[in-house]
Amino acid sequence: xxxxxxxxxxxxxxxxxxxxxxxxxxxxxxxxxxxxxxxxxxxxxxxxxxxxxxxxxxxxxxxxxxxxxxxxxxxxxxxxxxxxxxxxxxxxxxxxxxxxxxxxxxxx
Length: 108
Description:
By secondary structure, the chain is of the alpha+beta class. It has a single domain (about 5-100), classed as YaeB-like fold (2-Layer Sandwich). Helix content is about 25%, strand content about 25%. A 5-stranded mixed sheet has the order 1-5-4-3-2.
């Protein structure tokens, strides 16, 4: 597990495309939001363990209100909230990335 990285999964195609296609710009996302989301994904890509991400203050990762220790939120400067769910196995870690919709506060 020495060289393993945290894997990334996305709850919807738009977030996956946003993370992997540098030319993609979803409707309603500002340039600042795009840069912050790409920084979050880049840090997830570089992380060896979940705590590598959680300890980066610039990502603004906070525990989720549900009380579930595997869930967290990263708030972009605009207030848009990215839902993070961490799954760990003996061989590697995974972060599942979703978008919280302000009206319902449920992952999409």
